[in-house]
Each structure stands twice: as structure tokens, then as C-alpha cells.
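A.,

Following up on our hallway conversation. C-alpha cells first:
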């Protein structure tokens, strides 16, 4: 079987890594790896390929940044000749970024079936660009590989045929588990002078949080208070860096601002943090597996299992509520979560088994 595997933006890279490792191990399947170039900075892209042992992409479409329409259209325009030339049996897309829907739509119109990894998640918030990408990608995919039971329920409610849906676990957690030992050895905690001191981690990049000056100011007001009580490491996403221009972060000595971090350093910090504040989707899942309290700075999540079973708490965007929730998390013993079923490091193997026909039904 010949696949074209697509990755475009930072959160895609840790999801394709275990698929590429699994494909490399097997003789019945091969993959042509396409990087769309949606993310292109060294620290948003190449670093992850190196750290995670992902093969160099066979092709880089180099689309770069742009409005949603421009970026999506440009990926489609540049991806079409690749599909025509490669004539794959299927293409694999992961997650919910613009590259995901752009490549899925291109392939399906050429008659090439699409496998969507991380299907079925829904925030029910159609103002999120990712929610539109999820709904559309799922609607045109042949194989829907689901991470958690809410995904099954969402797809069934949308009328997707049972034989297209597979609950397989979480490829991003495959990567987390495979890299635990390596990430433990990262020196980042010493480098940031946090050895022996409790600390928090903050990430922010959702347009709804960072592009709206009032929302951003509210979040920063909360962080301004918390950094007096706990040092907080804040690796800054490029979108957020622009939004922060004009804000005086130097007035917050407890806020440790860094460039975007590599995967191993970031996992080291997440695993050892007293508390994580984030608007990311993936970090809600990673903290659940690591057993670290996560306060999600959003009003919804497409990953409800991280709340029902894991360590995640939706705290919204109100500064007082964020501070109160963080103080509670700092003063009380961590809520013992449990690791969701099938988040066991074997999701990529299940996916490849299903794609090659070695396995036809979901695991029991
Ligand atoms: C994208 C995804 C989002 C994902 C996030 C993770 C979509 C719609 N959004 O959002 O789901 O959670 O990636 O990071 O696909 N930029 C750089 N260097 C880069 C990449 C981006 O400087 O390597 C800057 C550019 O100014 C760009 C901005 O960041 O305009 C936003 O990048 P973009 O890819 O449009 O969206 P993200 O906010 O990164």
C-alpha cells in the first residue's frame, strides 16, 4: 500500500511521527511525506523533525502564512500535482489545521480516499477555525480514526457510517510515551534556573485569546498576579509575539519568557510543572497523561475526556476566575486523573493495521 502522509503545522509533527515510525518498520506499506510549509520557522518545524526522528519530507510545498483562504487555497494548488504524480492508494491527514482540510479536499476530488487521524472531536464553537476544519475533513474522509468516545458519539450523531469509524487511541500520546526517557534528560529546567523550585507553564496562541486585545489584557492581568506566587515559563508562539507588542512583560519578573521550545524540552517542563495554563488542545491531553493539573483558558473543549477522566479544568477567560482556579490548584493535592483507554502508545500500529487491512474492526 502506498500512502501520502501530510503534515503542515507544529501540532501535526508529533502526530505523524509514530505513523512514520510504524510505516518504516513494515514491509507492506510505504509513505511519501509531504510538508505543506504552513509552519516554517526552525523552532516551529525542523527542530521537531530532528528530535522525533521523522524522515525529511519528500516534498515541502512552502506555502507559508496567509489569510485562511489564501493559505488553504495555496496548499490545495501545490498539493494537487503531488497527488497526481504519486497516485497513492490513500492520503493521511492529522488534526485540524488548514493544511488538514486543504489536502483532504484536494485528494478526495481526485478520487483518492482520505484517512483522518484525530477525527470526531467537536468544540461546538464554529467561530474556531479548527472546528470548521474538523467538520469538513470528517465529512469527506473514508477512515475516521478517533481518540476518545466523544468522537464516536459526534460522528454517529452526524450520520457517519459505522464502518468508517475506528476508536484507535491517540497518536500524540504514542509520541509522548516513546519520548519520555529522552525528555527526562533535557536540561531545560536547569537552564531556566528552576531546579528544585516549583513552577508553572503558560501557552497562548488561539486567535480568540491573543488577537482580541481585551481578552489578552484580561489573561495578562491574571498572569501578572500569579507570577508573584509561582514562576511561570511562557514559550511564546509567533502569533502571540506579535499580539504582545506594546505589553510590558518585563514588569512581570516571575514570568520567564522564551522562544517556542522543542518537543523534548517542552515535555520535560510539562511533566514537572506544578500547574499548566493553556489554550492549546493537545496540551490538555498531554497533561492528562502526565497527571499534571491543567487549567484551560477557554470556554469549551473538543477533548471532554481530559475533563471527565483527566486533570483538565475549563476555567474560561475571566481574570479573577483564572487566579482563583490556579490558587486552588497550587494549594490542594492534584486531582488524580486516569489515563483514557487506548492511550497506550499503540495507536499508530492500530491505524496502520486498519489501513493495510490486517485488522478490520476496532480494538475491543
Ligand atoms: C495554526 C493552526 C492552529 C494550531 C496552531 C499551532 C490553523 C487554522 N491554525 O495556528 O490550529 O493550533 O497552528 O501552532 O491551521 N508564524 C511564524 N512562523 C511560523 C508559523 C507562523 O512567524 O513558522 C506566524 C505568522 O505571522 C502567521 C502567524 O504566526 O501569520 C499564524 O500562523 P498560522 O499558521 O496562520 O496559524 P497559527 O496561529 O500558527
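Then the amino acids I'd put at each of the 364 positions:
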Amino acid at each position: 500500500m502506498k500512502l501520502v502522509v501530510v503534515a503542515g503545522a507544529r501540532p501535526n509533527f508529533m502526530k505523524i511521527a509514530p505513523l512514520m515510525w510504524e510505516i518504516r518498520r513494515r514491509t507492506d506499506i510505504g509513505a511519501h511525506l509531504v510538508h505543506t510549509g504552513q509552519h516554517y520557522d526552525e523552532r516551529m518545524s525542523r527542530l521537531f523533525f530532528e528530535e522525533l526522528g521523522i524522515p525529511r519530507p519528500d516534498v515541502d510545498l512552502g506555502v507559508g502564512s496567509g489569510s485562511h483562504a489564501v493559505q488553504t487555497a495555496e496548499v490545495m494548488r501545490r498539493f494537487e500535482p503531488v497527488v497526481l504524480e504519486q497516485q497513492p492508494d490513500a492520503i493521511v491527514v492529522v488534526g485540524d489545521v488548514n493544511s488538514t482540510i486543504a489536502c483532504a479536499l484536494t485528494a478526495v476530488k481526485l478520487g483518492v480516499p482520505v484517512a483522518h487521524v484525530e477525527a470526531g472531536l467537536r468544540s461546538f464553537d464554529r467561530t474556531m477555525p479548527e472546528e470548521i476544519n474538523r467538520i469538513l475533513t470528517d465529512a469527506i474522509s473514508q477512515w475516521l480514526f478517533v481518540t476518545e468516545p466523544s468522537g464516536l458519539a459526534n460522528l454517529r450523531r452526524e450520520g457517519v457510517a459505522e464502518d468508517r469509524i475506528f476508536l484507535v487511541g491517540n497518536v500524540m500520546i504514542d509520541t509522548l510515551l516513546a519520548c519520555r526517557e529522552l525528555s527526562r534528560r533535557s536540561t531545560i529546567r536547569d537552564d531556566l534556573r528552576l531546579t528544585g523550585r516549583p513552577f508553572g507553564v503558560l501557552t497562548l496562541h488561539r486567535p480568540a485569546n491573543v488577537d482580541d486585545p481585551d481578552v489578552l489584557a484580561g489573561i495578562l492581568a491574571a498572569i501578572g498576579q500569579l507570577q508573584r506566587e509561582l514562576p511561570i515559563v511562557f514559550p511564546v508562539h509567533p502569533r502571540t509575539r506579535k499580539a504582545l507588542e506594546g505589553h510590558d512583560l518585563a514588569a512581570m519578573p516571575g514570568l520567564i519568557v522564551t522562544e517556542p521550545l522543542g518537543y523534548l524540552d517542552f515535555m520535560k517542563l510539562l511533566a514537572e510543572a506544578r500547574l499548566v495554563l493553556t489554550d492549546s488542545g493537545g496540551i490538555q491531553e498531554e497533561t492528562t497523561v502526565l497527571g499534571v493539573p491543567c487549567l484551560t483558558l477557554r470556554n469549551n473543549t473538543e477533548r471532554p475526556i481530559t475533563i471527565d477522566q483527566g486533570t483538565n479544568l475549563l476555567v474560561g477567560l475571566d481574570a479573577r476566575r483564572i487566579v482563583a482556579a490556579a490558587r486552588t490548584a497550587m494549594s490542594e493535592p492534584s486531582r488524580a486523573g486516569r489515563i483514557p483507554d487506548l492511550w497506550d502508545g499503540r495507536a499508530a500500529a492500530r491505524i496502520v493495521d486498519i489501513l493495510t487491512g490486517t485488522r478490520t474492526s476496532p480494538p475491543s
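Residues 199 and 230 are 6 Å apart (CA to CA). Curious whether your intuition agrees with the design.

B.
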